[in-house]
Amino acid sequence: MNTQDHKAFDVRTVAPAEPNRSVDVSVLPSDHPQVTFGKVGVLLVNLGTPDDTSYGPMRRYLEEFLTDKRVIEWPKALWYPILYGIVLFTRPGKKGKDYKTIWNEELDESFLRTYTRSQAEQMAQAFAGNDKVVVDWGMRYGNPSIASRLEALKAQGCDRILLFPLYPQYASATTATVNDKAFEHLMKLRWQPAIRTVPAYHDEPVYIDALARSIEEHLATLDFEPEVVIASYHGIPDSYFKKGDPYHCHCHKTTRLLRERLGWSDDKLITTFQSRFGPEEWLQPYTDKTIEAMAKAGTKRMAVFNPGFVSDCLETLEEIAGEAHEIFEEHGGEHFTHIPCLNDSDHGMRVLEAITRRELQGWVE
């Protein structure tokens, strides 16, 4: 796996990975395309990230994101005049400033890219003893693209690929659009690899336990005990839920199982939804409004975490650790902490590896 620059691979040999899947090279015509096969790819895919915080890269990223029909379901005749007439002129500058506040200056990239790369590298190390498995990573929006990484895996001989959308709770605007993009690229291939897609794992014991341990360890470092802990999930328009999207139910089940695992009451651990956009009603209760109301009502100590995000990103670092913290203190709160996402921690990698190994059964010994 080349996780640093994602250069294209140039493979020029017939190289089966297993004896029982070999070919008789002697019967091949002289002009037969030279290919490799017999390996199994694992492609970790997260939402995406701009390449830079300046206007141009931000606009390209937002355009790709906001023209996805899974994300914005409005008719193009209604949405595109707003998108191209207003949003893509004003939002890139504003969001670029937001990204700048949480940018990984050391590597000159977003932390989402940093963590996703690290997750792939650690996953590759976990499978280092099996030369049949190749691990890579990509982004639904921005770089490296899903198509480029599928091509790289195929060039390395992966005729079977496990596609892992990094979303514990299923939503059409996240998991489904990753799958869509992958299969869109497969439509262009003459020799398609076999594909498996990882399902939602919002209620998997290994995931619930990892969240619980992460919360317990973080709270143990504090000099105060939160009166309430908020599980803040990214929202979706309420209309998507009413059309049958299971996301709302998955989020509430994650919180319920986590509450049971921690032994907390309904009042100690609650569910809210953040990051709404546009005029529609989104899933409620809203995170920012809930935090404001609780602070006004006298809550002095609060913790917030984001179980729907595999990696810390703009929505967790800027919106919660930054903005939500300010809202809480502005309205009377005194002690606030943001509990980091699982990221590339031992707890987080234990989840990703366990899910990957389960989904590879039958393909990998």
Written account of the structure:
The longest helix has 26 residues, at 76-101. Residues 1-20 have low confidence and may be disordered. The protein is built from eleven helices and ten strands. The strands form three sheets. It has a four-stranded parallel β-sheet, with helices on both faces. A four-stranded parallel β-sheet has the order 8-7-9-10, with helices on both faces. It has a two-stranded parallel ribbon with strand order 1-2. It has helices at residues 55-66, 76-101, 111-126, 146-155, 172-186, 205-219, 238-242, 247-262, 287-296, 314-330, 346-359, and strands at residues 15-16, 36-37, 39-49, 133-142, 158-165, 194-197, 228-234, 269-274, 301-305, 335-339. Helix 6 (205-219) runs antiparallel to helix 11. It has two domains: 34-201 and 347-359, Rossmann fold (3-Layer(aba) Sandwich), CATH 3.40.50.1400; 205-339, Rossmann fold, CATH 3.40.50.1400. The protein starts with 14 loop residues before the first strand and ends in a 6-residue tail after the last helix. The chain is globular and about 80 Å long. Helices cover 43% and strands 16% of the residues. It is an alpha/beta fold.
